[in-house]
């Protein structure tokens, strides 16, 4: 089964990351790198997204599409990256997501 894991940063997580010393931040990035290495057999693709303020949004409506700079909604949680995984079942996807060492929210969605 294929799933996408969406890594969601909260405002609190972003503040904590910003408050870290350079060595603490480097250690956090190394933990993420180890997670990717540990699960490489199941990860088919992954990417880190640019910050939400770099987004361009297309809003579809009755008056036609409207293009704006910035995210679609202002939120306290923002998807910062994703990984596509190929695993046996949702239980295995959950086990991989539970091991994620960074942002506090991981959304798991099946891929058609």
UniProtKB/TrEMBL annotation:
Pfam families: YCII. It comes from Actinomadura verrucosospora. Residues 40-104 form the YCII-related domain. Belongs to the YciI family. It comes from the Bacteria. This is YCII-like protein.
């Amino acid at each position: 089964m294929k799933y996408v894991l969406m890594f969601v940063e909260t405002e609190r997580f972003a503040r904590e990351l910003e408050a870290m010393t350079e060595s603490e931040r480097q250690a956090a990035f190394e933990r993420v790198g180890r997670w990717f290495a540990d699960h490489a057999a199941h990860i088919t693709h992954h990417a880190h997204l640019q910050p939400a303020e770099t987004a361009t949004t297309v809003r579809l409506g009755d008056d036609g599409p409207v293009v704006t700079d910035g995210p679609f909604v202002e939120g306290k949680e923002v998807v910062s990256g994703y990984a596509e995984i190929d695993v046996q079942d949702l239980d295995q996807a959950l086990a991989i997501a539970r091991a994620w060492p960074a942002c506090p929210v991981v959304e798991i969605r099946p891929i058609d």
